[in-house]
Amino acid sequence: MSKLKESLHANLHSNFHPLTISTSVGAGLICLSFIIYCFAVGFKLFVVGSGSMEPAISPGTVIITQPQDRYYPGEVITYQQMYVNPGGYSLRQQNITHRVVHTKPSPEGIIYKTKGDTNQQLDHDPVLHSQVLGKAIIAVPLLGFILLWPHSQLGFYFMILLPAMYIVVCQLVKIIKLIFNYVPPLAE
Known about the structure:
This protein folds into two domains: 2-39 and 152-181, no CATH class; 44-141, Umud Fragment, subunit A, CATH 2.10.109.10. It is 37% helix and 28% strand. It has helices spanning 2-13, 18-40, 143-148, 153-181; strands spanning 44-47, 62-66, 76-84, 91-106, 109-115, 127-128, 132-140. The protein is elongated and about 100 Å long.
C-alpha cells in the first residue's frame, strides 16, 4: 500500500507548475497596479442601473469617470444626488449618470442641468459642480452584470460552491484513477 501513498503524494504535488504560479502572480500584480493607478489619478467606477441613458448607455454598463475642472453640454457625467427616504426619516445617496444639457455660473459655483437621453424632460434638481464625481470617459457594456452578480444570492453560491465542488470532483477522479491503475507488488 506504500506505493499507492507515494503515487498519491507525487500526483498531488505535481499539479502546481512554477511557471503557472509565477505567471498568475505576475498578472495579478499588473492588474493590482493598474487599479491602484486608476484610483490615484481619480478614476472611479460605477455600474449603470437604469435605462435613462439608452441607447448610448444601457443598464449593466460599467462607467469609468474622471474628475474635470469643468463639464460642458453633451458630456456624460456621474453625480451624487441626495433623496429623502419615503418615510422621511433619513437621507439616502444615489449616483446618477446623465448628460449635461446646460451650464450656468452661480454664487455656489457652476450649476449643471442634466437629462437622461431617454427622458423627455430635464432633471428636476440642478447639479452643483461639487456634486459631480466625474466625466464618463469609458463605458463597457454588460460588464456591470458580471461585477454585480457575486453580490446576488445565486451568484454568491456559484462563486463559492461551484469552484469547491469542481476541486473535490477533480481530486476524487484522480484518486479513483490511481486506485484502479494500482498494481500490487508480486509476493516473492
